[in-house]
Structure formats: structure tokens, C-alpha cells
Task: structure prediction
Amino acid sequence: MKARHKRMMFIVVGLVAVAAIAALILNALQSNINHFFSPTEVVANQAPKDRTFRLGGLVEVDSVKREDDGLTVHFNVTDSAEVVTVKYTGILPDLFSESQGVVAQGKLGTGGVFEAEEVLAKHDETYMPPEVAEALEKAEGMKDAAAQGAAK
Result:
């Protein structure tokens, strides 16, 4: 085998090794990604049933209910079109309140209840997570389109 062929073989083997390493790294990163879903997408069964994801929207007024243990809280998250019930056990953020933006991370449990592992609240009066704002705008657009369709 000529030196030129040996170099070419070395380059090909090196490229295959780099591609294999890159594929393994991307696969590992993909399993750690938490996708964002709105209540409308969750109700439409677009959210994964067995994986952790983020749910965002507004906390519905008069929906926060605390259990006797003092740590378990049930509340509804809405995007103005659909509603998802969230169950969270832990201490809620100080800025958590009704009719405010919230993002919860967890899994979808039995009966369509979202079992949150973490709840994040807005950090000032004007802030809303970009994902929540986008989901609310999308839901409003869907409601407007449905209203126009019903009017015709």
C-alpha cells in the first residue's frame, strides 16, 4: 500500500470516529432537553406521556388549593383556550400568584394532571417567559379564528 493510500485511510477512519463521537454526544444532549408545551398542546395530546417537559401559562384565578400537609398545592394553568391542573409538592416561589405567568417542569400523570417537580414564577410585574407569551398569543389567535368561523 502506498503512503498516499495509508494517509487517505487514516483520514477516513478519523472522520468516522469523529462522526461517531458527535452522534453519541448529540444523543446524550437530546435526552436532557426539556421541551415547552402550552395547555392547549397538552390537552391535544402533543406532550410526551413519559418524559419531563415544561408547561407554561397563567395561573387561573381561584384555582389554587392547598392540601392539609401545607406543602402540596393544586392549581390550574391556562393559555386562555385550555386548562391543565398542576399538582406540586414543595415551597412555591415568593412571586407565585393567581393570574400571573408560571412555568412548571414535570411529567403528565394520571387523569391528565401535570405533576410538577419545579415551579418557576415571573420575576417582576412586567416579565412573562417568552414561551408563555407566545403560547398565549397563539391561543388568542385560535379563539379569534373560531369566533370568526362561528359568525359566518
Q: What stands out?
A: The mean pLDDT is 84. The domain at 36-151 is CATH 2.40.50.140 (OB fold (Dihydrolipoamide Acetyltransferase, E2P)). Residues 3-31 form the longest helix (29 residues).
